[in-house]
């Protein structure tokens, strides 16, 4: 089917009907009729109408900062973005007719606001046009305690499809479906391991095509047998292209010239969300932001004040609170909701969260409703999305203002926050992006109360003592004992079935976060370990290649012993010990940890000592 020039509900319904009928007419294997039956029902008029209205429209319509009062379809605002396969250099432009079809699960990685969810929606639309696979789009954060499979079944039953047990499973294994799973990073950390197992099973059990999106550093980014694509930073032409879309091709020449001739601004506009924010805020800005932090910092007051320098016009506000007070309320609201893992609100929950924020700020609670109206109508940073549903314009807005709230806390309360975070930081990542903002806007306390304390808690401040080898040895063994590897053994041969990353949910992930803002950076030692397991290379660690019989023997002795027949499950610690590679690998990993200490801890500690010496003065007052 030819791409639609204008998206409407009727046109999309027609495309869905065409897609289902085309797939039904294809050859199906014997025993797949139950799966075919689902598509048959979806091709009928009523289910096709309901499915289009409830799901297709929902994922292809959106509210934006420049269109806060009405929905826009994806194709009205989408400008092609580039992705690159991790480990490669070839770039792919996600535009019209482009789809991703690989034998392995695909994971699209992008930083906050970089457009990974928008890319997934574009792929969803192109799959409908191409009519070779039926796309199902699922927002992972909404699954909660359910499973991916049960959530999909519920979606189908909600549009009155009649399902027989096993129907959906047969459809998934027909190779005529692609599951699009958005926002792995938005799932709370305690549920991710289960969801990751389910994603793996969709491929191993049903051979179903799966595309996932995630921020960098989550568990899926280091999972084996998954192809990672990274969203590329915008270049100047892409920035202008996005502006053109927002201007509906009537480009603002002043803004265009500013972007073309200001290299620093180009370097700041790394993601579509920032381009959108510049476009909307530009008429009200006196000074162009110098960097990303400056951008977010100016955003709230600029939008709340809304004095249009072009039209010389101020927007009328419901509440008469000052922009500073409103900003403080918004900061508290963002922290409270983020801390409770809330990104979506009903009318009632939004009111309750704002009521608490006003109370914390010492503002009259009688103003709650008026402040709520201003946040929605004036700033548009919280947007109404259908009946009784409100969303943040973007998660990064919530994260930045949560960071502003933390930075503004009295020292005793800020210290309490960081102490609580220190207890869970190895496993809990919901504050990761908040910490990257705090690193810039609250540098001294971030360093003193979090980074230095973390290294001290791990005893890494004592590496100049005789305890150095013991401290590092304990850290390395603890990491390797908790990392599991599974081998699938058959007829005396074996291959790696799964391998847990050594840089996930532990000290290595946290100091990676401190170092470059991303937990999942692969260390040189881990790369060599991967080469040993997957390419059977005898690396510089001199790890012996083991036989299937030896793996089964270690597995029987290991505390990680697998229960399934044909599976040898053991810790990386046990594997390295048995293969005579532990000592050399331990030395390499110790060296990398020392490098982190030298690069992160030592400069902060030295600066603190210098400041202490300067302040250690006898004033003789």
Shape label: globular
- How many helices? The count is 26
Characterize the largest beta sheet: strand count, sense, and whether it forms a barrel: 7 strands, mixed
**Side-by-side strand order of the widest sheet:** 4-3-9-5-8-7-6
Quaternary structure of the protein:
single chain
CATH first level of the largest domain: which class?
Alpha Beta
Radius of gyration: 27 Å
DSSP strand content:
5-15%
CATH T-level fold name of the largest domain: Rossmann fold
Indicate the structural class: alpha/beta
List how many beta strands DSSP finds.
17
Q: Which segments are poorly predicted (pLDDT under 50) over 5 or more consecutive residues? A: 307-313
Q: Architecture of the largest domain in CATH?
A: 3-Layer(aba) Sandwich
Count of all domains: 4
Helix content: 40-55%
Superfamily (CATH H level) name of the largest domain: P-loop containing nucleotide triphosphate hydrolases
Mean pLDDT score, rounded? 88
Distance separating the two termini = 85 Å
């Amino acid at each position: 089917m030819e791409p639609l020039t204008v998206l409407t509900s009727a046109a999309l319904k027609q495309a869905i009907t065409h897609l289902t009928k085309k797939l039904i007419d294809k050859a199906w294997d014997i025993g797949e009729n139950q799966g075919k039956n689902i598509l048959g029902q979806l091709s009928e008029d009523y289910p096709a109408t309901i499915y289009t209205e409830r799901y297709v429209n929902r994922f292809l319509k959106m509210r934006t900062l420049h269109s806060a009062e009405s929905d826009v379809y994806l194709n009205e605002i989408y400008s092609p973005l580039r992705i690159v396969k991790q480990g490669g250099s070839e770039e792919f432009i996600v535009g019209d007719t482009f789809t991703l079809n690989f034998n392995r699960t695909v994971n699209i990685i992008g930083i906050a606001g970089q457009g990974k969810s928008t890319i997934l929606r574009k792929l969803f639309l192109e799959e409908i046009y191409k009519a070779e696979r039926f796309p199902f789009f699922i927002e992972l954060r909404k699954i909660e305690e359910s499973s991916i499979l049960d959530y999909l079944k519920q979606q189908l039953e909600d549009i009155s499809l009649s399902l027989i047990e096993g129907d959906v499973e047969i459809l998934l294994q027909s190779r005529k479906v692609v599951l699009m799973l958005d926002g792995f990073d938005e799932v709370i950390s305690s549920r991710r391991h289960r969801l990751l197992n389910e994603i793996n099973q969709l491929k191993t059990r049903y051979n179903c095509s799966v595309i996932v999106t995630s921020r960098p550093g989550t568990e899926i980014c280091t999972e084996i047998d998954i192809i990672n694509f990274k969203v590329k930073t915008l270049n100047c032409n892409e920035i202008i292209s996005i502006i053109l879309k927002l201007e509906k091709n009537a480009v603002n020449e002043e803004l265009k010239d500013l972007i073309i001739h200001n290299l620093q601004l180009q370097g700041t506009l790394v993601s579509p969300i920032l381009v959108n924010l510049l476009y909307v805020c530009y008429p009200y800005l006196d000074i162009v932001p110098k960097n990303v932090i400056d951008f977010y910092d100016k955003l709230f007051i600029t939008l709340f004040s809304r004095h249009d320098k072009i039209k010389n016009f101020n927007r009328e506000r419901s509440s008469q609170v000052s922009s500073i007070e409103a900003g403080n309320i918004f900061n508290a609201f963002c922290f409270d909701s983020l801390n409770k893992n809330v990104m979506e609100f009903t009318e009632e929950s939004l009111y309750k969260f704002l009521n608490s924020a006003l109370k914390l700020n010492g503002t009259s609670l009688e103003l709650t409703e008026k402040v709520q109206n201003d946040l929605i109508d004036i700033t548009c940073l919280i947007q109404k999305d259908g009946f009784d549903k409100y969303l943040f314009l973007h998660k990064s807005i919530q994260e930045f203002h949560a960071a502003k709230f933390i930075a503004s806390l009295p020292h005793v309360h800020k210290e309490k926050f960081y102490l609580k975070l220190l207890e869970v930081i190895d496993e809990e990542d919901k504050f990761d992006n908040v910490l990257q903002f705090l690193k810039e806007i609250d540098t001294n306390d971030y360093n003193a109360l979090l980074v230095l304390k973390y290294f001290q808690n791990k005893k890494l401040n004592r590496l100049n003592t005789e305890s150095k080898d013991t401290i590092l040895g304990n850290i390395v063994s603890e990491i390797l004992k908790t990392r599991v590897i599974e081998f699938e053994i058959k007829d005396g041969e074996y291959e790696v079935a799964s391998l847990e990353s050594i840089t996930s949910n532990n000290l290595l992930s946290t100091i990676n976060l401190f170092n470059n803002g991303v937990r999942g950076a692969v260390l040189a030692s881990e790369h060599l370990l991967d080469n040993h397991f997957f390419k059977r290379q005898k690396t510089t660690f001199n790890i012996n290649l083991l036989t299937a019989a030896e793996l089964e023997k270690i597995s029987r002795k290991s505390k990680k012993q697998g229960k399934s027949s044909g599976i040898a499950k053991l810790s990386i610690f046990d594997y390295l010990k048995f293969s005579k590679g532990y000592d050399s690998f331990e030395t390499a990993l110790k060296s990398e940890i020392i490098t982190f200490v030298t690069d992160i801890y030592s400069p902060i500690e030295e600066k603190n000592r210098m400041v202490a010496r300067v302040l250690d003065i006898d004033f003789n007052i």
